[in-house]
Structure formats: structure tokens, C-alpha cells
């Protein structure tokens, strides 16, 4: 597979939308920017922002940065603007911060670098201001921890509009699709309406408490990735770096620690699910009211959730391991193949792939 084909596959997998270079999204209107910042409609509606549009160039830069820091967290800033109820991310840059496996904080050196970078980008013609920050959660999904919530609340209090983006580089390597989430926090003393059920994501048992405690202090914003034909050259240069790393690494090796932690976490969840099922009594059906029957069904679903989620997690682990095995076997066959004729070569690849799929 060539670099260009891989880039096209990446674009399709991540649903990257191609727009015209003449699109208004690429024009920075200083007067409009001042007007919307002066009116600040987001201060009146906690759910004002509905969408976060990220340029493909900014996305690739963030993913490369996130992958380079594994197993530690990384942090960076994003530059962009507000268009209606959408936050548009045009570019991103890494911050020189020292992270751990569970947290990352910006020091004085990072703040100085941030100011210098933004001033330099203004001189170079990049007029968009800092409009968000991004960091990574290696192996434990896209959500905001307690520290992240406090950081984002402070950012929204003093430099709104601001958005938080989280990337999981481990799950990105395993799945191929960038695991990314964009979030906004609610104002203090604000009680959100009942949250709609979102798509299930696997959270390690050690992080579930932190996830649950702060889950109602923020909401997730939809993410859309875009690019133009003018981005292709810069995107190709960035992609070459990303593609070389992808091609030269095996997810079975680079994600070894992640896979072990996933299996360990699944074992703990199954133990917890087993103890829950053992102590659960069957529900006696009643026919008093339709509302009571609905409540019983909902309660039953909640009781089954832990085991059902464990099954989803186990399937996900198996699929990711199989994908890693298939990609490694195919790379081995392609790059270690001896010339024996086209027919035998294609047959060899087909046989090995079938064997890996099982």
C-alpha cells in the first residue's frame, strides 16, 4: 500500500470532508470576530456550541504529538475562530510540558512558549487566536477527568470561547480511526437536563469513579474533520512522518502494555459482574400500571449493563488483536516475499490472510 493510498484510506476512515479553498471558513474576518466576542452568545446558553470542526492538518499534528508521548500524556493548544454555533480549529501546536501517565500540567516555560508562538504566528499571517487546548488519554478513552474539568472551567471563565479536545493514541493505533472527543464544561452551579444516552465507550475500572463523578459537569460536542485541495501538499508532508511510524511499527508490540492493561481491566470487570449477577434476584412481574412495568424494564437493563458492557469490551479487545495480527502478517508477507511469480505471490498473501482471520 502506497503512502497516497494510505492517506486516502485515513481520510475515508475518519470521514474527512473536502471543501473549496474559497470557502469562508478559511477567511478570518476581524470585524466579525470582534462582534461575536463582544456579544458572547455562549455566555447565555450553556449548550450554545453544537459542533467542533477541525482541519485535517491540525488533526494529524495532534495525533503525531499524542503518539510520540505514549505512555505519558501530552498537551497542546489549538488556534481557530467561532462561526455561528461552531468552533473551527485551523491549526494546533504542541506545548513543551512534562506529563505523567495520568496527568499533564503546563509550567511557566510552556506559558512563555505559548505567548511567543502566538505572537510569531500573527507575524506569519495566522490571525486566529488560541481557542482550545488538547491533551491525550493513552488507553483510557476520550472524556474529562476532574483535573481536566477544572482546567477547562478556568479557561472558559477567563478566555472563552474555549474548547477541550481529548485524543486516545493507543485506541487510535488499535482501531485505525482517530479516537477523539471535544468537550465544553457547564457554568458553576448549573444543573444540566437529563443527559441523553451516548455511545458506549470502554472506561478502565480504575477510572470509572473519576469518570462518573464529573460526567454531568460537561457535555460532548460533535466533531467534524475538513480539508481543502490547498491542504494536500502540507498534509502529505505531515502524513509521510505519520505513515512511516505506522508502517514501521506493529500495534501488537507498540500497544503491548495497553493490551495487557485491557485484559487486566476486563478480568476485574468480569469479577465485579459475576458478583452482581450472583446476588441479583429475579424481578417479579406486576401489572398494576404501565409506568411501573417500564420502570422494571429499565431497572433490569441497568442490572444487565455491567455484564453486557464486559462482553462489548472483550469483543473489542479480540477484534483489535486480530486486526494487529492481520496487519503484521500482511506486512511480513509483502516485505519478506521472494520473487516467485505473480500467481504464487497473490496466493501466498491470500492464504496467510485467511489463516490470520481464522
Features:
358 residues; Cytidine Deaminase, domain 2; 2 domains; seven-stranded mixed β-barrel; 12 helices; protease
What does this structure look like?
The protein is of the alpha/beta class and 358 residues long. It has 2 domains: 247 residues, Cytidine Deaminase, domain 2 (3-Layer(aba) Sandwich), CATH 3.40.140.10; 90 residues. Helix content is 53%, strand content 16%. It has 12 helices and 8 strands. A 7-stranded mixed β-barrel has the order 2-4-3-5-6-7-8. Strand 5, helix 5 and strand 6 form a beta-alpha-beta unit. Helix 1 crosses helix 8, helix 3 packs parallel to helix 8 and helix 11 packs antiparallel against helix 12. The chain is globular. The two termini are 23 Å apart. The model has no long low-confidence stretch (mean pLDDT 76).
Topology record:
Layout: H1 3-13, E1 17-19, H2 30-39, E2 51-55, H3 56-69, E3 75-83, E4 86-94, H4 108-123, E5 129-136, H5 146-159, E6 163-167, H6 169-175, E7 180-185, H7 205-213, E8 218-228, H8 232-248, H9 251-254, H10 256-278, H11 290-336, H12 342-357
Parallel strand pairs: 1-8, 2-4, 2-8, 5-6
Antiparallel strand pairs: 3-4, 3-5, 6-7, 7-8
Point out poorly predicted stretches.
none
Biggest sheet, open or closed, and with what strands and sense? 7 strands, mixed, barrel
**Rg result:** 23 Å
Strand percentage lies at: 15-25%
Reading off the top of the CATH hierarchy, the class of the largest domain is best stated as Alpha Beta
Number of domains: 2
Q: So how many helices?
A: 12
User: Roughly how many Å apart are the termini?
Assistant: 23 Å
**What would you call the shape?**
globular
Query: How would you spell out the order of helices and strands?
Result: HEHEHEEHEHEHEHEHHHHH
The counted number of beta strands is 8
Find the CATH superfamily of the largest domain.
Cytidine Deaminase, domain 2
The average pLDDT score comes to 76
Named at the architecture level, the CATH assignment of the largest domain is: 3-Layer(aba) Sandwich
Strand order in the sheet with the most strands: 2-4-3-5-6-7-8
Structural class: alpha/beta
CATH fold name of the largest domain:
Cytidine Deaminase, domain 2
Helix content: 40-55%
GO biological process, one term: protein deneddylation
Subunit structure: Component of the COP9 signalosome (CSN) complex.
Function: Catalytic Component of the COP9 signalosome (CSN) complex that acts as an regulator of the ubiquitin (Ubl) conjugation pathway by mediating the deneddylation of the cullin subunit of SCF-type E3 ubiquitin-protein ligase complexes.
Organism: Ephemerocybe angulata
Amino acid at each position: 500500500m502506497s503512502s497516497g493510498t494510505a492517506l486516502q484510506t485515513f481520510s475515508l476512515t475518519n470521514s474527512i470532508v473536502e471543501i473549496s479553498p474559497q470557502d469562508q471558513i478559511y477567511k478570518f474576518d476581524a470585524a466579525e470576530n470582534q462582534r461575536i466576542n463582544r456579544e458572547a452568545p455562549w455566555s447565555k446558553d450553556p449548550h450554545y456550541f453544537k459542533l467542533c470542526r477541525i482541519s485535517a492538518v491540525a488533526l494529524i499534528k495532534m495525533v503525531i504529538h499524542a503518539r510520540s508521548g505514549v505512555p505519558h500524556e501530552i498537551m497542546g493548544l489549538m488556534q481557530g475562530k467561532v462561526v455561528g454555533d461552531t468552533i473551527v480549529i485551523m491549526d494546533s501546536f504542541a506545548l513543551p510540558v512534562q506529563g505523567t501517565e495520568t496527568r499533564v500540567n503546563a509550567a511557566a516555560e510552556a506559558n512563555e512558549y505559548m505567548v511567543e508562538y502566538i505572537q510569531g504566528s500573527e507575524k506569519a499571517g495566522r490571525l486566529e487566536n488560541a481557542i482550545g487546548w488538547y491533551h491525550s488519554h493513552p488507553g483510557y478513552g476520550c472524556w474529562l477527568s476532574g483535573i481536566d474539568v477544572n482546567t477547562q472551567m478556568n479557561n472558559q471563565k477567563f478566555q472563552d470561547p474555549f474548547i477541550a479536545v481529548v485524543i486516545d493514541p493507543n485506541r487510535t493505533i488499535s482501531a485505525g480511526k482517530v479516537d477523539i472527543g471535544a468537550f465544553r464544561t457547564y457554568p458553576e452551579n448549573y444543573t444540566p437536563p437529563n443527559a441523553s444516552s451516548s455511545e458506549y465507550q470502554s472506561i478502565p475500572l480504575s477510572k470509572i469513579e473519576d469518570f462518573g463523578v464529573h460526567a454531568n459537569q460537561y457535555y460532548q460536542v460533535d466533531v467534524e474533520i475538513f480539508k481543502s485541495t490547498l491542504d494536500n501538499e502540507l498534509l502529505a508532508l505531515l502524513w509521510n512522518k505519520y505513515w512511516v511510524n505506522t508502517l514501521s511499527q506493529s500495534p501488537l508490540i507498540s500497544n503491548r502494555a495497553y493490551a495487557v492493561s485491557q485484559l487486566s481491566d476486563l478480568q476485574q470487570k468480569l469479577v465485579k459482574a459475576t458478583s452482581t449477577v450472583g446476588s441479583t434476584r429475579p424481578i417479579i412481574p406486576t401489572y398494576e400500571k404501565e409506568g411501573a412495568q417500564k420502570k422494571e424494564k429499565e431497572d433490569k437493563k441497568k442490572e444487565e449493563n455491567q455484564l453486557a458492557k464486559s462482553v462489548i469490551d472483550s469483543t473489542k479487545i479480540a477484534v483489535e488483536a486480530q486486526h494487529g495480527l492481520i496487519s503484521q502478517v500482511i506486512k511480513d508477507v509483502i516485505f519478506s516475499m521472494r520473487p516467485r511469480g505473480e500467481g504464487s505471490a497473490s496466493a501466498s498473501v491470500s492464504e496467510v490472510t485467511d489463516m490470520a482471520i481464522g
